[in-house]
Queue: 3 jobs
Job 1
Amino acid sequence: MKKDDERLFDLISPIVSENGLDLRNAAFFGPKEFQATWKRSGNMIDIRISDYLIDAPDDVIADFSKTVIGTIKKKRPTYGRTYLDWVRSDEYIDSKRKIYLRRSRNLTGSPEGNERNLIESLDRLLDSGLLDPGSIGNSFFSWTKIPNVRKFGFCSPMMRVVGISCLLDDVSIPEFVLDYVVYHEALHLKQGYRPGQRSHSKEFRQQERKYPKYEEAEKYLKALGSR
Ligand SMILES: [Zn+2]
């Protein structure tokens, strides 16, 4: 790890200097979600960057560092093409998703629940034409271990992982309600990883409303969440 941190320091240091700051420390760290954090005192900064980039090429790390330093300088974050192409590649997703799933302690790691299978939900959504195979390509669906009541599903567009609350792994929940939650999260996959942009855009909401029983499903979930 130390050698990796030295490399990181050498890559970030010139970019930090160009921005009138001094890099004191740079390190990779391993939170579940991809992120960068920093501490600033005067012109001195310490930066930590997600270890999902630990084996990325120099130009990718440099490109992402520009985004981080821009944010430290309170500029509106912009993400470079070199960085985006790297983290959107199947190669990146395939290797980092394994780590992400290990770190996701609340996921069972399987789309097969006790009573329901998420793959069957996806098949129904594909058969009905609401989803196309391309939009959910290279993705992974899993049930959660804890039955979240307020958040029925979540999506990491970067890792292309969807988690669905095991509260819905129950035949007493109408199938169209489960499928609706899966549909919502699948729309995030369709949108893809686009940092710095709104995840529930106007366009997203329009697509969400295409679900045939949209109103009923929303109503059902609202009632379920407030039990
Ligand atoms: Zn959402």
Job 2
Amino acid sequence: MSEYILEMKNISKRFGGIHALNDVSLHLRRGEVLCLCGENGAGKSTLMKILAGIQQPSEGQIYIDGQPVRIRKPIDSIYYGVSMVQQELIQIEEMTVAENIFVGRYKTKGGFVEEGRINREAKALMDELGIYFDPKSLLKHYSIAQRQLIEILKALSYHASIIVFDEPTAALTIEETEKLYKIIRKLKEDKMAIIMISHRMEDIYAVGDRIQVLKDGCDSGGGLVSEMTVDDIVQLMVGRKMTQQFPEKTNHSGEVILKAENLSNERVHKVSFELHKGEILGIGGLVGAGRTELLRLLLGIDPGEGSLQMNGKPVEINSPRDGVHKGIAFLPEDRKDQGLILEQSILQNTILSILERLSKWGFMNTRKEKNVCKEYIEKLRIRCAGSQMAVKMLSGGNQQKVVLGRCLASHPDILLLDEPTRGVDVGAKAEIYKIINDLATAGLSIIVVSSEMTELLGISDRILVMHEGYLSGELMRGEATEENIMHMAISHDQTAKA
Ligand SMILES: Nc1ncnc2c1ncn2[C@@H]1O[C@H](COP(=O)(O)OP(=O)(O)OP(=O)(O)O)[C@@H](O)[C@H]1O
Ligand SMILES: [Mg+2]
């Protein structure tokens, strides 16, 4: 038995002119959790896709348990005991949980899927990990977070010895993240080898043993988690010390620009609030508290009651598109839902929102659009080969930045951001915080929904907290702390229900 269950040596990968990986080597022991870190576009997913047989290296060699292997197709990697939970989930909504877990491996009897058997096997897997879903219910009934756990069950169903998690916690709630940590610790005890990609430092310190950092497709160093500080890791990732994550606040709240009264539907209960010009209003709460639902109701995506005023005049918004015309831009939380046209270029995707706004006049000035697009590629540090590059070729975090860029390019008066930095690396996060601050300083009014406490506290002038669809509290910058936000996030004044 070799000391290492896995070694990847001198791996390079070129996509046309892009050098996604350049002479990267990696090793992994049994019972070890290796955290793969790096900025968006650094090459993390690509390296793991090569291991999983989804992509072929341009150069390099993989060894499993000391033996050189060729992994040409995903099925080869499964043969060698590698299983990967991908960043972009590939699941089928109209199939059941069990069918999704055993997809492509149905056990059939006389041409029929042995439903009973796969349901039992799915159940056994869940029992092993202490998670519970109805194996017979359709996948579409589950949230993104739950689907992520189902994907993990699928990875485990292969009885792999190496499991790769590509940003597993990005969409998980606090409880589910804890559950995943437990699962990873258990896998470790069972001597499985694990590689985890994550932009969240909490993940690294919760379950990681060792860190390896990629930068611009190259090895940038690493070490034992127990011997590295956050600053050390960030230094390796961005190549410089990051002195501050949040910018000095320069914005000032002015008059009321948006007034919402008694917004209500099934998930949101009589929520009233005001948003001021130039203000950054944070909305906190646990996942499921109704924050996304509030934004959806406000924009007329979901039906409901209540009234809205903009600049003192009643206004009704029937769709996000209608919102854009009225000066409200929306960044939704689910990237798949964000209407990115993956086949099309960054430029075309960015222009989409400008088009919506300018279509009234029925003409476009392409040169200007190109410049706008270039501006956001630079500002948001989108790693790409230029504005003509197809969005599907971008890394996950960079796709997120395109959506944000498109949102900003529509030059709204009010910006609604739902988890704006999900899947975005630390360096780019700081850039996004600065952009948000600058926009507010220029008079934009911004609402930010965020599950990250530090983010909420770092950028908001005022924070509204939600619990079970009710507004459970309001805190001004300066008085808000993690503790009092959490306190409001887990309960609300019952009398408010009346
Ligand atoms: N199919 C492809 N065609 C062209 N370029 C690609 C393709 N897939 C990835 N790339 C490029 O390779 C580089 C590395 O991408 P990768 O997805 O590995 O990044 P990552 O480190 O996983 O980033 P993130 O944190 O954003 O997920 C990026 O510049 C990306 O644009
Ligand atoms: Mg990735």
Job 3
Amino acid sequence: MSSDVDASRTGKARRIPIYRTLPALARNPLRAFEEIGRDTDGEVVQLDLGLHRPYLVSRPEDMQHVLRDRADNYVRDGMLWKPLRRLFGNGLGMDGPDWARSRQLMLPVFSARNVATIMDELTAALTEAVEELDPYARREEPIDTRVEMTRIIHRALIRVFIGDGMSTADADRLGHAVTAGFTSIGPRLLLPFVPDSVPLPGDGAFMRAVRLADSIVTPLVRQRQRDGATGDDLVSLLCRARDENGDPLDEELVRNDVVAMFAGASETSAVTLTWLWVVLDGHPEIAARVYDEVDRVIGDGKPGPAHVPKLVYTKQVLQELLRLYPVGWVIPRSAKETDVVGGVEIPAGSTVLASPYLTHRMERYWERPYDFDPERFSPERSGRRVPSSYVPFGLGAHQCLGSHFFMVEAQLIVAIMLSRYRVRLRDSAPVVPQAAATLRPRGRVEVMLSYRSPQ
Ligand code: HEM
């Protein structure tokens, strides 16, 4: 049991009988989840889902406890992680010694200094990928935003992290495999206690996605190993790495880390950027300020790395977007030993759901939490924020490695898109969030692009 907790204040968690509110849950699971958050005001409670009874954690200090201070006790296992293990294998996407070694190896790749060195390449890849949207603008046809944002993100990731070893067609196929993996995992997420040997819907599609990812990444790893892995790309870096005995990582570990990095980077970024167009369409006054900033900063030129630090308001919009729509809406963990969180006993083996989605909507930390207000992230107001009340990239041991990369990439995408096109939603019906492995918009989000200046 955690030593820094006053045991006299320790009690059993209040149980929230979800099955009683099942109709509400079935209609809109996220709304029901939000209501629980509001009613309990961040208290650690246990959700009674029948066979499954996870604990819900959302106060900043409790998030710190679970994700940072006692990360050794709250591990990636059970819900979400057990099914994902089939895609990621051991390494960066999981926990334990293989994870620790991979994280250590990858840290320098994501440092602000290294991201600065790949900015030209990143800009070129993003510009080419965005320009492929031209035919839609010319023909006045809608684009499926998630599909196109995913394509743009994948092209950039492959170019800057994998180099020239992968064709555009393979980049798109790998992207497709990762998206299919995340989509088909749904039933296993809802039923984490069902053993792998019992088939569930989505398993077939999931295993096809795993095989497809293998068929693209494994030959690439072998190729790099044969060539001596001299390049600066991520695959070469991993192939050159040595473990504590001086031995190279085996082929499977390199494959696992490439897939985990790719999956962690692509679905999250693409879904966030899909939300961006939805939110800008719903807030014309904020959109106008973003267009103005892009025009002022970019002028008649082409967006490039030097513009990024000047896209200040655009960055605030992206930060606020990640507050209201944190794609990692719950971060599941499994308690190894019995512990106490927020005065509540968490028995060994329990699932703990740390929820940035709820933290970001708590009135005690955020004024008018449901309003979209990028001014919250102005330099003056940012300084007043309660530590760990803003956690879209997680916290502690597993905190996102790509948060800086994402911000830079997203600012560039906004600048490239908006200096070229006016973007508006095809349909003005409200877009509803859907709580899957990530917080996605429900259904297709279609946008229309029109050129801002004659071509
Ligand atoms: C909107 C964009 C993104 C969001 C919201 C996001 C969110 C997160 C969160 C919440 C975690 C922690 C998961 C946990 O504690 O179990 C995480 C981990 C991670 N993210 Fe991101 N991420 C984003 C983009 C990226 C990008 C662009 C990259 C790489 C280029 C990346 C690479 C990773 C990696 C490698 C980890 C695992 C770190 C570890 O376990 O040690 N992410 N991300």
